[in-house]
Amino acid sequence: MEYELLEHEADIGIRGYGDTIEEAFENGAKAMFSIMVDLKKVNSQKNVKIKCEAPDIEALFVEWLNELLTKKDIEEMSFSRFKVKIHKNDIYTLEGTGSGEKFDQKKHKAKIEVKAATYSGLKIGKKDEKIFIQCIVDV
Q1: What pLDDT, on a 0 to 100 scale, did the predictor assign at position 36?
Q2: What is the pLDDT of residue 4?
Q3: pLDDT digit string (tens) for 117-131?
Q4: Cβ(60)–Cβ(94) below 8 Å
Q5: Cys-Cys with 138: which of 2, 67, 82, 115 at CB 3.0–4.6 Å?
Q6: CATH code of the domain covering residue 62
């Protein structure tokens, strides 16, 4: 399992799984974009670089997702593949990419618009030998 969507009263919870924290971040992004479009219909034609930082790994997850949403809006793109590298010095730094293509309503079949990733429900842990990270996204 790469990711799952979690039930929430008003919004939607997302959880990304991975063998590493980076993979969990990548799959968390897939979960978020799966709410908005059919990922199978989004080709990886263009890579968009993402860089963000935060004082802890949980906050970094929220920053990562919100940076992707910002780039989605600025570049008018849908993303379906993600790559992440995380470094820790005084703070956590993430360098990553979102791969996708220009949004096309006919091709990508827009579903629910995600406004932002939130600190609500933010949690990191292990389940069935996989690392997971989760949060609630505002729709």
Answers
A1: 96
A2: 93
A3: 999 999 999 999 999
A4: yes
A5: 115
A6: 3.55.10.10
Is residue 85 predicted with pLDDT exceeding 90? yes
For the question of whether the overall pTM of this predicted structure is more than 0.90, the answer is yes
Mean pLDDT confidence for 9-14: 91
- C-alpha distances out from residue 43 to 98, 100, 115, Å: 11, 5, 23
Query: What pLDDT shows up at residue 10?
Result: 83
The residue whose two tokens read 């980076």 is 22
d(CA 68, CA 26): 11
User: What is the helix, strand, coil percentage profile of the chain, to 5?
Assistant: 30, 40, 25
Structure letter (DSSP) for residue 129? T
DSSP E strands, 44-91: 46-54, 77-88
Distance between CA atoms of residues 98 and 35, nearest Å: 16
DSSP state of 72: H
* CA–CA distance, 133 with 125 (Å, rounded to integer): 7
Mean pLDDT computed over every residue of the chain: 96
Number of structural domains the chain divides into: 1
